[in-house]
Amino acid sequence: MKIAFHGAARTVTGSKHIITLKNGKKILLDCGLFQGMGPDTDALNRDFGFEPKDITYMILSHAHIDHSGLIPRLSKLGYRGKIYCTHATKDLTEILLMDSAEIQEDDVKFTNKRLAREGRGYLQPLYTIEDARRSLEQLRPIMYRQWFSIDDDIEVMFTDAGHIIGSAAVHVRITENGKTEQITFSGDIGRYRDVILKSPEEFPQADVIIMESTYGDSLHTDVAPADEELLKYIHETCVKKRGKLIIPAFSVGRTQELLFALNNAQLNGILPPVDIFVDSPLSMEATDVTRKHPECFNRTVQKMLEKDEDPFDFPGLRYIKSVSESKLLNFRKDPCVIISASGMAEAGRVKHHIANGIDEWKNTILLVGYCEPQSLGGRLMRGAKEVSIYGTKYEVKAEVGIIRSLSAHGDYEDLSQWLACQHPSDVKKLFLVHGEYEVQTHFRDWLHKKGYKDITIPERHYEVGI
Q: In what residue span(s) does the Metallo-beta-lactamase domain sit (predicted)?
């Protein structure tokens, strides 16, 4: 048996890992889009490093685009098998991939206009809306916590990863030559005691573990609680400075967490009377999907639903649907909060809002999650004094704020707690993926102290026998 790592290897996005059995069957774990990788992004997304038609089965840990976003291209280039996921992941993936396909088509139109002016070639989108629609027919939902046979030699089970609605750790039990081994892929591990979701679940002893490590050297508890920080920024920016608070937020997970915190503040009478806009049609759809899956909520939220039937809605909240409404926000003089995608500020409507508000001292750009270093969000997070947006340079006069504790990724204590159900001596190999290399080396040292011996940080396209 072999494992190859074709994405999220010494970087955070583009999750793709292949298990190859001795009989030649290949199981692909995730098929994610690379994001925020600067000028290399497009080339990384066009070259899988493997032949899609050679994949036998695919298993999807969760719907985030850096885990699901290349599924339509995989299908377009020859993969015809089933894609196994949880029920909530199927619902989210359907809206995310259709939105991603629209972005692929729109971005290529824009790029091709520029190439035509320069007398250069014509670029094809990674995939089209029709490609995405066809690939969605391959999704097959299965339940949490039940072993499911996808083959005579292969069983799969999902356990809740607590990261976003429907997220799962993937456990693959493979029998070869009469011997059965379990490979566990963490997907993205959420946080214990999350305000909305259930905590990550325990899982059976694994022989091999492929584990994410985004915050492998960080503790989220070193900052004030997220809801307090959020209210502080609203008060400072919107009440005192009479400015706009612009929050780049991923449509799935982060936006719902922000809305939940704001709803709680409104119920407790501590939310300032400021207009709050969610300027992302995808966020609206994702919130609707979240409402459909209360089985993923923790006990506190389940109890809350008995009194408040919608924890993601409150007076003063408005969803912006059309492009024209979105543009009008740029001319608005009154203070307000604008929550808009994407979370790394690399695409979508939020990029326009940042361009419109970045050179005004009274405004604040509030970053509420991980940003790839090369992304616009990453550059702002590192204190850039000037940034380029759509080819125009802007001086950064607005305040740049950061709330680290809103991350849906677990810190190193959460990651360690997820592993606590395992006997380190029984884990033959542990691979760290989905993280920056320096962070991963620190986490590897931490895990060595916990008793894990054979820990590898693979490079992209690295393949190893197990």
A: 15-250
CATH architecture assignment, domain 2-218+408-465? 4-Layer Sandwich (3.60)
Other CB atoms within 10 A of residue 89 CB = 29
Give the count of alpha carbons within 13 A of 94, CB side only.
14
- Token pair 């997970």 is at which residue? 253
Q: CA-CA distance, 430 to 445, in Å (whole number)?
A: 13
The ranges assigned to domains in the chain are 2-218+408-465, 224-402
CA triple 402-406-408, angle to 5 deg? 130
| Distances from the Cα of 182 to the Cα of 19, 170, 203, 204, 207, angstroms | 12, 10, 11, 9, 5
What's the CATH architecture for 224-402? 3-Layer(aba) Sandwich (3.40)
Q: Is 60 exceeded by the pLDDT of residue 141?
A: yes
In three-state secondary structure terms, 157 is: strand
pTM above 0.90, yes or no: no
Cβ count within 10 A of residue 205: 11
pLDDT of the residue at 223: 46
181: Cβ contacts below 8 Å, ≥ 6 apart: 1, 173, 174, 207, 208
**259: closest CA among 310, 188, 323, 302?**
310
pLDDT at 2 over 90: yes
pLDDT at 156 over 60: yes
Helix, strand or coil for residue 197? strand
Residue 224's pLDDT is what? 56
CA distance 79 to 131: 12
With tokens 């070639």, the residue in question is 121
pLDDT tens by residue, 11-36: 999 999 999 999 999 999 999 999 87
How far apart are the two ends of the chain, measured CA to CA in Å? 6
Q: Identify which of 86, 78, 82, 87 has the alpha carbon closest to the alpha carbon of residue 136.
A: 82
